[in-house]
Every structure is written in structure tokens, then in C-alpha cells.
Design goal:
Elements: H1 3-18, H2 29-35, E1 41-44, E2 48-51, H3 53-66, E3 69-77, E4 81-90, E5 93-102
Antiparallel strand pairs: 1-2, 3-4, 4-5
Length: about 110
């Protein structure tokens, strides 16, 4: 396992969460666009399946707009894959999220 690519994957995850974990006041859409692949594939229990960065960003902004707190629980990352487990305090209560990422190039 290459340390450089593993560190790069960790840095991408840091940038992704740092861009929105502080809530809507710190939501950095430009930074997120620079990190997300334009053709990303997202699937979730609430939003269903979304293809492309733009639909994903719109949905993320809606969730972040209602988020009261972000509680990271666990992250795992390797050269080209990563996962994160976290809780968010939303209007209906605390919700657990699990995300899985594939990294290619700088996204």
C-alpha cells in the first residue's frame, strides 16, 4: 500500500467533510465541486439514486441546512477506497450515516 495515495485519499475525505460538517454557514460548494467527480454515482435510502455531482450537491445542501450537529464515529481509508460512519443531529433526531467512496485521480 502506497503511503502517498493513502494520504491523498485521507486528505480528500478531510476536504469533503470539512466542506460541510459545520452546517450551512460553512457549506463550501466550490470546494465540494473541486473534490467530487462530475459523474459521481450516489445511492441512499432517502434520496434514492443520483448520478452527477450537481444533484448530489443539491441534496447535500438540503440535509446540511437542517443539520444541528455532526458526530464522526469512524473512518477507514486505503489507496482508492474509503468509508465513514457518522451521526448527524437533524430536526427529527440523531441519524446514522455510512458512506463509501472510490477515489480516482484527485477526486
Amino acid at each position: 500500500m502506497s503511503t502517498n495515495t493513502t494520504e491523498r485519499t485521507a486528505a480528500l475525505l478531510d476536504g469533503y467533510y470539512d466542506s460541510w460538517k459545520g452546517g450551512l454557514a460553512t457549506f463550501d460548494e466550490a470546494r465540494l465541486r473541486s473534490l467530487l467527480a462530475p459523474n459521481l454515482d450516489f445511492e441512499g435510502p432517502i434520496a434514492g439514486r443520483r448520478t452527477g455531482a450537481e444533484p448530489f450537491l443539491q441534496g447535500l445542501a438540503r440535509v446540511v441546512g437542517t443539520m444541528r450537529a455532526f458526530h464522526p464515529l469512524q473512518r477507514i481509508h486505503g489507496e482508492t477506497e474509503a468509508s465513514a460512519l457518522y451521526d448527524c443531529d437533524l430536526p427529527g433526531g440523531r441519524v446514522r450515516f455510512a458512506e463509501f467512496f472510490r477515489v480516482a485521480g484527485d477526486r
